[in-house]
Amino acid sequence: MTLLTIDGMRVEFPSRRGHVTAVEDLTITVEPGEILGIVGESGAGKSTIGNAVIGLLEPPGEMTAGAIALHGERIDTLTDAQKRSVRGARIGMIFQDPLTSLDPLQTIETQLIDTIRENLGVSESDASGRAVALLDAVGIPDPDIRIKQYPHQFSGGMRQRVVIALALCGEPDLIIADEPTTALDVSVQAQILDLLKGLCRDRNVGMILITHDMGVIAETADRVAVMYRGRVVETGTTAQIINAPVHDYTRSLISAVPPPDRRLDRFPLVTYIEDAQERPEGLDLATHWLGQTRDYGAASEELLRIENLHMRFVTRHSIFPSRRIFLDAVKDVSLSIKSGEVFGLVGESGSGKSTIARIITGIYTPTSGSIQFAGTELTSLKTRKEASPWRRQMQMIFQDPFSSLNSRMRVKDIIAEPIHFHQLADSNAEAQKIVNDLLDVVGLGSQAAGKFPHEFSGGQRQRISIARALATRPRFLICDEPTSALDVSIQAQVLNLLKDLQQELNLTMLFISHDLPVIRQMCDRVGVMRNGQLLEVAETEALFNDPQHSYTQHLLKLMPVFSEGAAKFGTG
Amino acid sequence: MIGFIFKRLLQSVIVMLTVALIAFALFRYVGDPINNMVGQDTTQEERAALKERLGLDDPFLVQFGRFAKNAAQGEFGISYQHRRPVSDLIAERAPATLELSLLSALLAIAVGIPMGVYTAIRRDGWLSRAFMSLSLIGISLPTFLIGILLILLFGVILRWLPTFGRGEVVQLGWWSTGLLTASGLKALIMPAITLALFQMTLIMRLVRAEMLEVLRTDFVKFGRARGLPDRYIHFKTALKNTMVPVITIIGLQLGAIIAFAIITETVFQWPGMGLMFIQAVREVDIPIMAAYLVMIALIFVVINLVVDILYYVVDPRLRVDRAATGH
To answer: What percentage of chain B carries pLDDT values higher than 70?
Structure first.
C-alpha cells in the first residue's frame, strides 16, 4: 500500500498584498522503503512541502487545497492534538543544520529518552536501552558513554547522526529529510547519505529527501520530483531525470552543475531563469579605467610566495604555559602562485584554507613564516601606511553575500569606498563614473548604483562584491568560497563572470573552495589541504586524473557524480 | 572553572579597591573632617591635636591603606550626625532594606517570569495584550508616583494599609524582622509592590522577548517535529534556554533594587539604609555616605560573581574542558 499520497496540494501564505502561493497543485507519492528526492533551487517551495506534511506550516501559511494521506488515511484534516501524535511516531523529520537542531542545554540522553517515552510510552529503563541501541544504529561509537554528553561535544557529522537517531525515536514509517547534508563536509555527507539509505532499506521506511544538490539526488534517490516556483515540473526515476530530462528547466538545471569529470570553457547558463544576465562583451584595457596603471613594472613570473607559514591560535588562555591549549590552524605551508594563474585551495572545513587567505590579506598576523608579494616581504611591513599599496593590489571576495555588504550603504557608496580610501579618483564625479563603469563590467548596469543591498538577490550581491573588489584595480584576487551560498544556476553565472574577468584583466587568483567540481572548472593549479597542512600541489588536470596523496584520492572518490557514463575518479 | 572564579575574584578586588578610593576621597577631601567633628569653639591647638590623633597628617597612601583595612573589617568611623559607629547604624538598618528588597525581587521574579512566558506562548491572546499594556504603565510611571498613588488609594481613601514605617518588628538576635507580625506584614505590602513593579515589567518583557527568540530556533522546531507536547517544548526546552540571558539581567536588577530602594524608602518613610542615606546626604554625614557606597558596590560585585557561577550551572557549553575540545 502506498505510504504517502499528496494529491493536488496548494499552500498559500496570505499577506496584505495578496496571497503568495508557495506550492501549487502538488501530487506525489512515496512507497515504503522508497526514497523520493525533491530537487529545486531556493524559493521553489521544497521545504514548504515537508512542513505541510508534518503539519508545521509557519503561520500564516495554510494548505488551501488538496489532500495528504498516510497509509490511505487523511492526515491534513486532523486536529492539532492528533497531528502531534502523527509527528514523531509516524513521520520523522531531519533538518538541515545539525548545529542548531539540538537543545544545547540538555544531554543527548535526556533528549532521546524523553522523545522515546513521549512517542512510545515505554518505561524509563526500556527507553534508555532503546536510546543506546539507536545511537549504535546510526553509527556513533561508544554509545553508552557518548549518550551522557551534550550536543556541543559532538562534531557536525556526529550531531547529524544524533538528529537522525532522534527522528527515529518514535519508529516512524516516513522520514522527511530537509537538506540533511548541506551543512556538512563532503566526506561526512557521503557517510550520512549511506546511513539514510541503509536505514530506509533495513527498516522499510519511506523517505522524502529535499535538496538543491543534484549530486545528492543521484547518489540517494529512487525517484525524483523537480520543482520550480512552487510547481513540480517533472517527475521520474532518478536515472530518467538525470539522463533524459524532458522539461527545459530540468535540462538547464542539470547542465549548470559543474561537471566533475571534464573541464568546460564556460558554464552553460540556466536560460530558463528569467533574470539570467549577460554582461557586455570584452573590455579594451588600453582605454578602460581598469586598464590604467596595470603595468606593475616587469611582470615577475611569481607573484606570491609563501614559505613555511605557521599560524597558531590559543584556544584556552592560562597564565601557566603548560595549561594553554593551542590550535595550529596552518602548519608549515609553502606555496607559490604565478602571475596570471588561478590557484585553487581545496579542503574540508577546518583545514586552514580561509586562514591562509586572511593571513595573506593581513587580517591575521602569522606566527612564523614569510609571505612575498611581487618580491616584497609582507610580514616585514609594520605600519598600515607601508602596507597600504600592497593591500590595494590584493582584494578579497567573501562567501556570504548577505553579511559582506553594509546594508545601510547604497551600492555606489559601497563600491566607491575603496576608491576614496586609496585615493584612486581625483574627484567625486570621477569616482561615480568609475562606479557606474564597474557595475557595467560585472553585468549589473549603472541603474543599480542608487539601490541598497537588500534589493538584490544573492547572486547580484556577489556581483556587487566583485565590483567592490575590482575598484582598487587589484592584480591579485582572493575568492573565499565565492559561490557556496548560491544556487547552482546563479553559481554558473558568477563563476563565468569571475572567469571572464580573470582572463580579460589577467588577474592572479587564489580560489578557495570545498567543491571539487568547481575547483576543476576554475583553477590552473590546485593545493589540497587537511588539518592545516598542504598535502599536495599539482596541475588541476593532473590532480584530478592522477592524485598522488591518499587523502586526495579519498576526496575524489567521495565526489558525487551524476552524469551518465562519468567514471568515478581516483584509484578506487 | 577554579581558574575562572579566581580571575573574577581578582577583578572584584580591583573594583572594590577603586570604589573604596572614591569613598575615601569623599571622606577625606569633601569638606574638612575636623570641622565636621568638632564644635565652633574648639581651639586651634585642640584641632591640631585631633588631626594628629586621627592620623590626618599621614601620607595619602598610609591614610588610604588604613581606610581600606578598616572598611574591610566593616569599620567606617563615627557618624557625624548620630555620634555612633556607622557599622552599628548599618547593622540596625540593613534588615529593613534587605527584607523589603528581597521580597520585592521575589515578587518581581515570581510574577514577571510566568507573565513573560505566558505572553510569549499566547502571543495574540487578549490576556497577553492586557499584560503588555499594563507593563507599559509599569515601565513608564516613576516609582515615587506609583507609591504616592498607592498611599492615596489604600492608605488615605480605603484606609486598609499603613502609609509609613515598618509596623511592629520582632527582634531575632541582631536581625529585626517585620515578617512575623500582622502589622509588619501589612506595612510591607505597599512598599514591596511599589519597588517590584518596575522590575516585574522589565523581567516580563525580557522573558517574553527571549522566549519568542528561542521559540523560533531550529531545536524547538525539531522538538515539535518529533512529537514532543507543547508543555514539554515550552517549559523544558524553551524556558531553560530563555533563562541563560535572563539570569544576568535579574542579577543586576537585584543589585539595583537594593541600591535604588532609596526612593521607595523615602516615600514610605521606611526605616532602611536608603532613608538613612538620604538623611546623611542632607546632613553631609560623610562616613555614612562612604559606607553606603562601599556596601552597595560589594553587593553588586557579589551578585555578579554569583551570576557568573550560575551561568556555569545552566549552560554546559561553558564547561569547556580538555576532553570536550578533543572531539
So the answer is: 95
Q: With beta carbons less than 8 A apart as the criterion, state whether A173 and A143 touch.
A: no
Domains of chain B: 2-72 (no CATH), 91-321 (1.10.3720.10)
Question: Which candidate in B222, B233, B242 is best for mutational testing of the A interface (most A CBs within 10 A)?
Answer: B222
The residue among A191, A223, A256 that closes a domain is A256
The alpha-carbon gap from B24 to the nearest alpha carbon of chain A, in Å, equals 33
Strands A62-70 and A73-74: antiparallel
Domain membership of residue A284 (yes or no) is: no
In the block, which residue shows the cell 517585620?
A: B178
Backbone angles phi, psi at A244, to 5 degrees: -135, 65
User: Nearest by CB to B227, which of A154, A170, A315?
Assistant: A170
CATH number of the domain residue A531 falls in: 3.40.50.300
Q: What is the pTM of this model?
A: 0.80
Domain shared by A358 and A209, yes or no: no
Q: A29: alpha, beta or left, given left = phi > 0 and alpha = psi -120 to 50?
A: beta
Which cell is A535 given?
A: 598535502
List, as own/partner pairs, every contact residues B38-46 make where C-beta atoms lie below 8 angstroms and the sequence separation is at least 24, other chains included.
none
Kindly report the number of other CB atoms within 10 A of residue B128's CB atom.
17
Given a contact cutoff of 8 angstroms between Cβ atoms, the answer to whether A183 and A96 are in contact is yes
Whether B325 shows a pLDDT value over 60: the answer reads no
A137, A203: one domain: yes
ipTM over 0.85: no
- Find the helix or strand (DSSP H, E) in which B197 lies: helix B182-215
Quick one: average pLDDT of A441-469? 87
* B326 at A interface, C-beta within 8 A: no
Residues in chain A within 8 Å Cβ distance of B225: 54, 56, 87-88, 92-93, 95, 167
